[in-house]
Amino acid sequence: MNLHEYQGKEILSSFGVAIQRGVVAQTPEEAVVAARKLTEETGTSWHVIKAQVHAGGRGKGGGVKLAKSLEEVEKLSGQIIGMNLITPQTSAEGKKVHQVLIAEDVYYPGDNEPEEYYMSVLLNRATGKNMIMYSTEGGMDIEAVAEKTPHLIFTEEIDPTQGLLPFQARKVAFNLGLSGQAFKEMTKFVTALYKAYTEADASLFEINPVLKTSDDKVIAVDAKVTLDDNALFRHKDYAYMRDLREENPIEVEAKEAGLNYVDLDGNVGCMVNGAGLAMATMDLIKQAGGEPANFLDVGGTADAERVETAFKLILKDPNVKAILVNIFGGIVRCDRVAQGIVDAYKNMGTINVPIIVRLQGTNADIAKELIDNSGLDVQSAIEFQEAADKVQAVLS
Ligand code: GDP
Ligand code: MN
């Protein structure tokens, strides 16, 4: 589950990470109230208006603006709320902005220049360890840094059974070239950030920039957070943070129906039981010259109702040119699945794309007969290769 910046900052703050403070607003009027409140609480005279959408690069797309008066807060909020924000991380259509974060200005002048760093915590799947990636070259161009000067990005690996050790936090602060008060602030920041990452069961915390203010405070100015869906059951207090407006509508519907569906860019829809078989089926589609339009695991109970829901979901994707059903009948009998497919097809009336059904396992031959005698425009297959050939044939 992806979070908005303001939600990520809320979690960070609850674990003791210093943040740029802000208040979320849905309208320009609310934005002005929020700005007044922030000025009372923090003494800030300027405010930053930040579009809240699930995409980075907002600054580049005009979704982050500095307001130097309450009139500007109102005007800029009015411009950003409702806009279609296009950033390097959104699709070409962009993302509609429903709300803004009104934040205190933390780039105020002082003894030193403010400095921007990059920091993220994530899982290194290759080593099975967590890692902190960080760089002195924070700000809006970290992707370019990663590409052109990768040696400027440091990584610190953390054994999850030991947690972040104090010397590791100090090493991060040292590599960022800090000393004195800022050094202490940074070790505190890193320690609290790692705690937030593990205790919230996140798979990503990306803070870009981490800011060293002109008076040597270290704070999170941005927060891109992904929580691990598999651990959400033990974070009921975060459930309300889900913003369905930001998610793929077909995926949301699938989740409600208890199906495991991931939308992809291809042209062959697939319906499979079991994640491993789904992966293999996607490979098979690629081999046959197609591209999978989705990942869909219907799970163990492939009855008529579930099959119908799955068909409907797949057909909502206008790119789908064919559907491959690949079901292994282990616990569930193939003939029952076949009956489910036939019933679902009949219930739906016409389906305008060719369907190839491969059923293997218990009662596979009875299932094939059922499909073949149904009088429907559905092709059956028993072998994997046979199914692949039939997919290839309908695509060419
Ligand atoms: P992103 O573009 O989506 O990554 O959004 P960020 O939250 O990182 O903000 C983009 C940029 O806005 C930052 O890199 C800063 O340069 C700038 N910015 C953010 N907060 C402030 C602030 O308080 N004052 C000023 N002057 N600039 C800010
Ligand atoms: Mn950022």
Summarize the structure.
The chain has helices at 5-14, 28-42, 70-80, 142-148, 166-175, 180-199, 249-256, 275-287, 304-315, 334-348, 364-372, 384-395; strands at residues 22-25, 47-51, 64-67, 84-85, 95-96, 100-104, 115-124, 129-135, 153-158, 202-212, 218-220, 224-227, 260-263, 268-272, 294-297, 322-329, 355-361, 378-381. It is of the alpha+beta class and 396 residues long.
Describe the structure.
The structure is a single chain. This protein has 396 residues and is of the alpha+beta class. It has three domains: 1-19 and 108-247, ATP-grasp fold, B domain (D-amino Acid Aminotransferase, Chain A, domain 1), CATH 3.30.470; 21-105, ATP-grasp fold, A domain (Dna Ligase, domain 1, 2-Layer Sandwich); 249-395, Rossmann fold. Helix content is 36%, strand content 24%. The protein contains twelve helices and 18 strands. It has helices spanning 5-14, 28-42, 70-80, 142-148, 166-175, 180-199, 249-256, 275-287, 304-315, 334-348, 364-372, 384-395; strands at residues 22-25, 47-51, 64-67, 84-85, 95-96, 100-104, 115-124, 129-135, 153-158, 202-212, 218-220, 224-227, 260-263, 268-272, 294-297, 322-329, 355-361, 378-381. The strands form five sheets. Strands 7, 8, 9, 10, 11 and 12 form a six-stranded antiparallel β-sheet that branches. The chain has a four-stranded antiparallel β-sheet with strand order 1-6-2-3, covered by helices on one side. A four-stranded parallel β-sheet has the order 14-16-17-18, sandwiched between helices. Strand 7 and strand 8 (129-135) form a beta hairpin. Helix 9 packs across helix 10 (334-348). The longest helix has 20 residues, at 180-199. The mean pLDDT is 94. It binds guanosine-5'-diphosphate and manganese (II) ion. Manganese (II) ion is lined by residues 56, 208, 222. It is an enzyme of class 6 (ligase). Keywords: ATP-binding, Ligase, Magnesium, Metal-binding, Nucleotide-binding, Tricarboxylic acid cycle. This is Succinate--CoA ligase [ADP-forming] subunit beta. GO terms for molecular function: ATP binding; magnesium ion binding; succinate-CoA ligase (ADP-forming) activity. ATP binds at residues 50, 57-59, 106, 116.
